[in-house]
Each structure stands twice: as C-alpha cells, then as structure tokens.
Amino acid sequence: MATIDIAKALELAKRRGLFQGLTRYKCEGYAIEDCLQLVEGIGKQRNPHFVIDDENRFTYENFIKWLHCDSSMKAIDPNTKKVIPGDMYKGIYIAGNTGSGKSWAMEVMLAYADLFHFRVKYGGETDGRLWWRIARADEIVSRFIETTSIDEYKKIKILCIQDFGAEPLEAVAMGNRMNVLRTLLEYRGDRSDCLTLITSNIPMCHQMLVTNYDDRVASRLMEMCNYFEIKGKDRRKL
Ligand SMILES: Nc1ncnc2c1ncn2[C@@H]1O[C@H](COP(=O)(O)OP(=O)(O)OP(=O)(O)O)[C@@H](O)[C@H]1O
Ligand SMILES: [Mg+2]
User: Fold this and answer.
1) Which residue range is the domain that position 90 belongs to?
2) How many domains does the chain have?
3) Predicted TM-score (pTM) of this structure
4) I want to staple 158 with a disulfide (CB 3.0 to 4.6 A). Which of 84, 93, 110, 132 is the partner?
5) Strands, DSSP E only, in the chain?
6) Of all protein residues, whose CA lies closest to atom 18 belonging to ligand 1?
7) Which protein residue has the closest C-alpha to ligand 1 atom 25?
8) What is the band of 164 on the pLDDT scale with cuts at 50, 70, 90?
C-alpha cells in the first residue's frame, strides 16, 4: 500500500482552500512600488490631489497584496493595533474618521482590480473574476424597506458595504421589523463562499458594534475581515 505524505497532503488541502468554499490564486511577479504608483495614478485620474501617504500607505499596500494573493500581506489586530499576518480568505474592514478616504480606497482598488483580472473560485463553480459590488449601508436598508428582502445582498459573492454604522438600525417593511445590517452580516459571516468588504467610522472591536449589532456580529466581523485603519484628517476640508 502506498504511504501517504500527510504533511504534504494537508498543505495541498490547505492551499486548495476546500473548507473555505473559496479558492484564490496567486498573481505573482509584481513590484509593489509600481503597483502603488499605478493606484495613485488611478486616484489622480479622479482627483488630482489624490495621494498615497503615511496615513493610508499601509492600507493601500496591503490591499494590493490581498488582491495579488501575496502571503506577505499584513493587517492590523483590531484589539492591540499591532501588525499581524493578513488572510487572503477574509475580506477587508477599513475604519477611519470621516473624509479620511475609506470609500475611495474601495473604489480606487476596484478600478485597479479591474485592470488585472484577478481570478477567484467560489465553491464548485468555475473560476471567476475577483470583483466586488459596492452598496452603502443605508441603501441596503432602503432596499429592504422597498422590497421586504435583503436576499440580493446575501447572494453577492463579494459585497462592499460602505458607511457601515451610519444607517438606520431598525427598519420596518410590511410589518417586519429588522436590524438589516445585523441580519445581513450574521448571514454572510456564517458562509465560507463569499467575502465582505466594509468601510466604517466605527473601529472594529468598538463597544458600539456590540451595542448596535450584538456580540454575534462583532465576533463574526473579526473572523470575516482583515482590519485596516486610515488615519488623518478630513480630506474633504484640505
Ligand atoms: N488618498 C487620497 N488623497 C487625497 N484625497 C483623497 C484621498 N482619498 C480620498 N480623498 C478625497 O477625500 C474625500 C473623502 O474621501 P472618502 O469619501 O473616501 O472618505 P470616507 O473616509 O469614506 O468618509 P466618510 O467616513 O465620511 O464616509 C474624497 O471626496 C476625495 O476627494
Ligand atoms: Mg465613506
């Protein structure tokens, strides 16, 4: 009987990411400095004042690495704020003050991702392109009120929720009262074949997340997302 190289087989199973229900592919052979320059160029096409500086460099650099599925990617521990290894099978949560550039980060990086055709596989499906749909949290709530359902947001493979925490917490549709974002994040947090990207003024681990969405959501967010903070003042006022 052939012997099994258990260590090798386990490594293969891990790389194939079968338990994650999601497979990501490395996109090697890139120079991070060139990529940062490209991202800055994309940002400047939209606003000539766009810069990657000390306040946002960590986020942009590691967002690029996340997209390229580079194992040297780093993130921040939301509790200790120390730098920790990033996880390609988690989404991204960017916190920061108003106007610090969080929403733009998600939009500029989507334009960047669009240039590269990064591949991703969801469960047993064939490879698809890594791409995300952007929706504001209050827009998701309005849609629930309009349609009495959040199924469309449950199904999106990679959903980017902008301005999480700024939406009305309770919504009523056809007599059905719901904390829409709590329900949506609880659902997505239990799935392993989708990713969630979030921007918020509320730092991860802040008591407000527990108060507004309960500890089940707060703990799922930690499992679902790599954490980044963009520092600095309101760039709208600069
Ligand atoms: N990297 C950047 N360099 C210079 N200006 C930027 C940068 N990113 C964003 N901006 C400018 O700052 C403004 C605010 O950015 P953005 O909407 O991303 O902020 P935000 O952090 O999402 O704010 P809020 O918390 O209010 O949603 C943008 O309109 C844009 O003009
Ligand atoms: Mg925003």
Assistant:
1) 7-232
2) 1
3) 0.91
4) 132
5) 22-24, 74-76, 83-85, 91-96, 119-122, 128-129, 133-136, 158-164, 171-173, 176-178, 195-200, 225-230
6) 101
7) 98
8) very high
